[in-house]
Every structure is written in C-alpha cells, then in structure tokens.
Design a protein that fits this description.
CATH superfamily of the largest domain: TolB, C-terminal domain
Low-confidence stretches: none
CATH class of the largest domain: Mainly Beta
Largest sheet: 4 strands, antiparallel
Shape: elongated
Strand order of the largest sheet: 1-24-23-22
Distance between the termini: 7 Å
Strand content: 25-35%
Number of strands: 24
Helix content: 25-40%
Radius of gyration: 28 Å
C-alpha cells in the first residue's frame, strides 16, 4: 500500500505546487526574478531560478517531512483510527477542490518585498523559495495542501513526507523557472498575464488534485479494511490460498481463500506450499493441505514452533534441561534428520521459517544476534543478518528469496523486507516505538547537563510503547505480523509489500 500511496500523493503534491503559481506570491516571484536584472545579466537570473528551486524543495521537505515525523512520534499510525482519519481528510479535500470552493482557512500573507532590494538576487530567490515551499507561510491555492499536511501526519511515513515535500516544492518552483528567464527576451510577461486571466486552468489543476486525493483515499481504505485481520491471534503462517494462526486459547485455525474457516486438530499450525502441520502432545502431524490427510506422524514432545514445506518439516522443542533444539526431518525419508541449531538457554533459538529445503531462524545471545540459514539438503550454512548487542533481529520469514524480519533497538521496532542475500535494499514496512523505558538522563532538582539518554528520533524519555512485534509470515502480496499488547493480548495485522 505504501508504495502506491507514496506515488499517488507525490504526484498530487506536485500538482498542488503548480496550483500555487496562481497565488499573488507566485505571480510576484516571476516578476521579481525575471524583471530585476534584464537580459544583461541573464546568468544571474538563471542562478536565482536555481536557488529558488532549491529553496522551495527544502521548504517543502521541512513542512511535510516534519509533519510525517510528528506522525511517527504520535504513535501507531497503522491503527484503524489513523487510517480512517486520513481517508476522511482526503475525501473532504477532494470534494472541495473538485467543486472549486473558496479556500478556508486562508493565509493572507505575502513574502517580504524588501528582500529583493536589500539582498543579492540569488540569495533573495533562495529565501523566497523556502517561504513558498513551506506551503503555509503565504496564500494557499488548493485544499490539497491542507489535506497533504494531514495525510503526512496520519500515515506517519518519513519517506512519504519527504517525497510529498520535495514534489510540492518542485511544483511551486517550476512555473517560476519556466517563465522568469524569458521575461524580457521571450514572452514570460504575456504568458503570466494569460495565466492570471484564465481561472479555468486553476480549477483544472485543483480537479487534478482532487483525483489524486481520491486515489489516495482508495488506497488507504483498502489497507484500513484489512489492517486488523485476526484479533486474539498469534503465530501466522501463509501459503497460496490459505492462512493459519494460533488463537490465544484452543486449537489452531485454518482459513482458505474462499473465506471458509475451520479449527485444526492440533496447535502451533504451519503452512508450506501444499502441506500443513500441527502439534498434539506427543506427536507432530504433517498432512496434505487439500485433503487434510496425514502423510507423516512424528513422535515429538514439548514442540513450541513448526515450519513445513513440500520436502521438509522443521520443529523446535524444549528439552528437559530448559534447552531448545531445532530439528529438520525429510518428508520423503523421515529417517533423514538434521540438527539445525540448539541452545542451553530457552529463547535463544527463534521460530523457524522454511522454503523448500532452506530454513531460516534467529540466534540471540548476549554477544550478538543473527538471522541464519541452513540448506537442509546440502548442509550449507549462511548468516543473512548480523548485529552486535543492542539490536535484536527476530522472527524471520522467507519467500522467493525475500526476507521479512524485525529489527528492534532502544528507539524503535521495525518490520523490514529485503533480499535474503543482501542488506542493501532492505526497507521498513512498519515501525512502532520501542517498548524500552527511556531515562531522561538527569534527576529533577539537579543541573541538566548534556546527555545522550533520550536521543531517539521517534520518541522522548519515559515508558516505552505498549505494543511489541511478534511472529511473522510472508506472502507474495503482504507481510503478516503479530502485535502483542499489554495483558497478553495479541492480534495479527497485514502490511502490504
């Protein structure tokens, strides 16, 4: 959802910037930069156009990127409330711009005229660009500007805020850059006068804004409709046309693509391609998903996690001395087993994910944390992600060479997606504040000297967030992640890739 929304709102912001050219400040910028020096110093005019563009882009980024950062600081922007608020804002602004309603509230303020007389033209142009790029320091020419500000907060995505800000700033600068250098040598003044006398062009741009906002609302509504798909659930596992999860109590649940839902004959369910697996005390069962007919029953005790594919099943059990063991068993030849990993302390070996013969899992120790892989058929081991103490890498899921996992530090919990064999293209698809409490770094009544106790870009000192991320699953179109709240409440949410 976020990629489509980013593209849609970025294009909308560009058109909203163009719409701003019809403001008194927009017209005056063309006259100020284009007529100040004439043809004799065209290079200075061109330089002023460049500084104006840079300033406008910087101003846009400051406004909309800053508002997106505020959205992150506010909290869980993936919640249904934030999504619904964004949809309402976009729809109301789209209706208002399509009908060409008078802009309200309006900011009736113009840029300082004295700058053009007291400063070098390139410097004045750059400062004028910043003011116009900020969006709300001069006249606002479309409701889309207000809507984009609200959406930046509601979505709370810094990449979206930066993209919207840069596009808005460039849109504000483009008419000036196009008209100002031709003020004397060409027909800049005539073109500007035609623009000012043609209100239908302004209305047409506002209607383009309305279309963009409507598309943004549709994208957000599609995401909001499935934001919380499974209440009171954890441990999702997904395959083509099917989804399983573990309720907080009782047996696992299977949901097919047609919407049919049924209870499974065991707990800790897992899906893989055309197979399904579950656990009952004393035995682990692997069955064909289409018929639910068991193909393999293994003796196993204290199983705490399962992963299955068409060729292997991997399970984690808890031994009599609190140790954890991760074991792989071939479905074609159950006598062929692989000891994947183990630990003397519980919790150090994470929940496995399996694709074909390749299993991925986390190893969490005091010295380091890593996501490792093992080819069960060939015996090859690799480290896919690695971190020193202070950063936890948890709950990986693998599909078609893509790795979904969580990176957690003292500031944030991030759900990331990228190629399994490289970290160069990892991107964050969901971010929550860390649950770690942050000390302010000083004691009340004492002098507050410089300290680094609370230097987190998304949160201040105090108690941490109330929601932590849990087990994940990955499908071709979406990622599934467990969100665990206070009181052991949990839900599974979907995040579109």
């Amino acid at each position: 959802m976020l990629d489509g929304l980013l593209l849609t709102l970025t294009l909308t912001a560009f058109v909203a910037g163009l719409t701003g050219a019809f403001s008194p400040c927009g017209f005056s910028m063309v006259d100020t930069i284009g007529s100040a020096l004439g043809n004799t110093r065209l290079r200075i005019t061109q330089l002023a156009c460049a500084t104006f563009t840079i300033g406008a882009v910087v101003g846009g980024i400051l406004t909309f990127g800053g508002l997106a950062l505020v959205g992150q600081l506010v909290g869980d922007t993936s919640s249904s409330l934030a999504q619904s608020l964004g949809i309402v804002i976009a729809l109301m602004a789209a209706i208002a711009d399509w009908r060409g309603l008078r802009i309200a509230p309006q900011i009736r303020r113009q840029v300082p005229e004295r700058w053009r007389w007291t400063m070098p033209l390139p410097l004045a142009g750059g400062l004028y660009g910043v003011l116009l790029g900020l969006g709300f320091t001069t006249f606002v020419l479309s409701f889309a500007v207000w809507a984009l500000a609200g959406l930046s907060v509601a979505v709370g995505s810094l990449p979206l805020g930066l993209g919207v800000g840069a596009a808005f700033g460039f849109g504000r600068a483009l008419p000036v850059v196009w008209l100002a250098p031709t003020w004397h040598a060409g027909h800049g003044a005539e073109r500007l006068e035609r623009m000012a006398s043609e209100p239908r062009l302004w209305l047409g741009l506002r209607r383009l804004d309305a279309v963009g906002l409507l598309l943004g609302a549709l994208l957000m509504s599609g995401s909001a409709a499935s934001a919380m798909i499974l209440p009171a659930a954890t441990d999702p596992s997904v395959s083509t046309g099917a989804l399983v999860w573990q309720p907080l109590s009782g047996p696992g649940v299977l949901r097919l693509q047609a919407g049919e839902q049924q209870a499974l004959p065991g707990t800790d369910p897992a899906l893989g391609e055309t197979m399904i697996a579950w656990y009952n005390p004393g035995q682990l069962t692997v069955a064909a998903l289409a018929t639910m007919t068991p193909t393999l029953v293994l003796p196993a005790t204290n199983v705490t996690a399962i992963a299955v594919s068409n060729s292997w099943v991997v399970y984690r059990d808890h031994g009599p001395h609190d140790e954890d063991n991760l074991i792989g068993v071939s479905l074609a030849n159950p006598a062929e087993r692989r000891y994947v990993a183990g630990s003397r302390l519980p919790g150090q070996i994470g929940r496995p994910s399996l694709e074909g013969a390749l299993v991925v899992f986390t190893v969490d120790t005091r010295q380091h944390n890593k996501i490792a892989s093992l080819n069960l058929a060939a015996g090859e081991r690799h480290t896919l992600r690695y971190s020193d103490s202070g950063v936890a890498l948890l709950n990986p899921s693998l599909l078609d060479g893509q790795l979904l996992y969580e990176s957690i530090n003292r500031c944030a919990q991030e759900l990331r997606l990228g190629p399994a064999d490289s970290t160069n293209h990892d991107r964050t698809v969901l971010s929550l504040p860390s649950t770690v409490a942050r000390d302010p770094g000083y004691e009340p009544g004492y002098e507050a000297n410089w300290n680094s106790a609370s230097l987190c870009p998304n949160r201040s000192s105090g108690p941490g967030g109330t929601t932590r991320l849990g087990p994940t699953a990955l499908s071709p179109s979406a990622g599934y992640v467990t969100e665990i709240g206070n009181g052991r409440q949990s839900r599974v949410v979907v995040v579109e890739r």
